[in-house]
Amino acid sequence: MMTRFTRIPGCLLAAWLLCAPSGAMAAVTNKYRVTMESAGTASAQGQSTTVKTSTRIDYKWAQSGYDRTLSFTDVSVRVEMNGNLVMDTTMSRKGSFNHLNETQSIPLERANDSLRAKLTEGFEVPFHRVTVDRRGKKRREKTIAGPGAKVLVDEGMILNASMAHPRFDDSSKEWTDDSRISIGNGGHTDGKLKLKRGDTRGTQTTVQVSGFLSQKKFVPAGAAIVLKDVQHVVQGSLVYDSRFKDWVSGRLNLDFAYSMERDGTEFGGARGTMKVELKHQGAE
Questions:
Q1: What is the distance between the alpha carbons of residues 183 and 139, in angstroms, rounded to a whole number?
Q2: What are the residues whose beta carbons fall under 8 Å from the beta carbon of 29, sequence distance 6 or more?
Q3: pTM higher than 0.90, yes or no?
Q4: Backbone angle region of 83, left / alpha / beta, with phi > 0 → left and psi within -120 to 50 → alpha
Q5: By percentage, how much of the chain surpasses pLDDT 90?
Q6: 151 φ/ψ angles, rounded to the nearest 5 degrees
Q7: pLDDT of res. 20
Q8: Which of 22, 65, 185, 197 is the most exposed place for a label (fewest CB within 10 A)?
Q9: Across 95-245, where does the E strand assignment appear?
């Protein structure tokens, strides 16, 4: 599902997200939903295609001391091209479901070996682990998903589920955090987020977020094109809750742009916007 989605040129920048959660605490598992609504235009050889995407990811961050372990519950993707719905799918441990053509839906019990491995090794199992120091800075990380989930790793699922969890610095009014945003097919932009503390009400603190992330050149696996000068401009705010030692809500606006090149000649590009919303779904 994710492979088909991200390999549509106009959608290459449709699913992103930004670095690891912070702050040591007693063991708790926070449940989240992040939704990403994007709209953009891809132009190539004089022709333009409008693309709208809607992506929803349900995931969990299990925190124990300074370790954070990520797992996924499900992911859904809807894609419109020139106003026509061309993709509407959901994937979870239960199966891969095509809502446009139910005959192409495959529950786990009917999945072939490759799909079964993706479902059982990609959902409702530990996927990625991050260790931070006492100030929330990332010390090390390791993807622990099985080989069957490699395509989910390549398509940026880890970055997508980290987008709204930059480092929170409880000792500073302003700070920065190294970040990456996925562009699918194993690619990403790099840069820093600037975070500025705002009002605190009770246990919740609002933080303003901004940043510029870029990648000069990226060659998608198996593609004949090169993406050049990929850019993400980030603006928005997140709300941090000291009870959970993590972010619990927020909205980020991302502007993206890139050009496409083949055999050393530029032939097109894309630009658009994405609205990202984080919702805390409770704790276990």
A1: 24
A2: 60, 61, 62, 63, 283, 284
A3: no
A4: left
A5: 80
A6: -65, -35
A7: 31
A8: 65
A9: 95-98, 106-107, 128-132, 138-143, 174-184, 187-201, 204-218, 226-241
